Amino acid sequence: MILGIRTLTRRRRECLAALQDAVTAAGAPVHYSAISERLGISPWTAYDLLRALECDGLAAASYAHRPGVAVGRTQVAFSPTDQGRAALGARSITPAEERALRRAAERVAALGQAALRSSRSLDVAGHLGFWLGQAEGLPGRTRDGLRHLLRSAPEAATGLSMFVAAVYGAVTPGSGAEADDLIAAVSAFQARLTRTTAARRERLIRSLLAVLDTLPGQTPPPAPGRFLGETP
Fold first, then answer.
1. What is the DSSP string of 137-171?
2. Residue of 101, 16, 7 whose CA lies nearest to 50
3. pLDDT tens across 121-156, in order?
4. Residue among 133, 132, 138, 134 at smallest CA distance from 219
5. Strand partners, 62
6. Domains and CATH numbers, the chain
7. Contact, 12 vs 52, CB < 8 A?
8. Contacts (Cβ under 8 Å, ≥6 apart) of 143
9. pLDDT tops 80 at residue 230
């Protein structure tokens, strides 16, 4: 048995995978704020998860001054240990489709309405990530309905189509350029979905449910006419 593997909760598995991705991207150990941003959790929650992984022997902490600062307090940074990397290699911690959905949702949050204008170039996971980004701003009760819709769908393609249609119905403005852009985004998604294999549709719907299950609690609905993910 790989040390610590039995103690990994779902949240710790996600944290370990996010840590590996962040360290790979940065080429060095990363601060816990990088994990907080990737998982959409508070910095202190990310810190506690990383410390738990450290206790399991799956992550290691190091200390150094921030770049360009040679004095004062050092800053903690984390990286996977050999055992942590082995755990990721031995067992799928976070499915690739789930990671793709999360990354796409993060890009939507950063780009706001501009994300629509590049939607035609996205793959099917990118499209779903776009609509997931919209769903994040919906009230908790509405998101519960989305989860029920996905779980009760007769097959994956229908469930994914119904998810996008339901989110569109909840967020679309009454008229204007934003509404036209959203309609175009729905059409672009449907075109991509028809070219996606049944096996990938099944993976996507499972990953979409997994991401929805980790979203925070109820949030107030957006102001009328404002595009979700767009700052005033």
1. TS-HHHHHHHHHHHHH-SSHHHHHHHHHHHHHHHH
2. 16
3. 677 888 888 888 888 888 888 888 998 888 888 899
4. 138
5. 77
6. 5-90 (1.10.10.10), 96-213 (no CATH)
7. yes
8. 135, 212, 215
9. no
Identity of the residue numbered 32: Y
Measured CA to CA, the distance from residue 65 to residue 43 in angstroms comes to 19
Length of the chain: 232
pLDDT at 207: 84
Q: pLDDT digit string (tens) for 153-203?
A: 889 999 999 999 999 988 866 667 777 878 888 888 898 888 888 878 888
Tokens in use for 28?
């060095």
The alpha carbons of the chain give a radius of gyration, in whole angstroms, of 19
Residue 5 has what DSSP assignment? G
Which pLDDT does position 139 carry in this prediction? Answer: 86
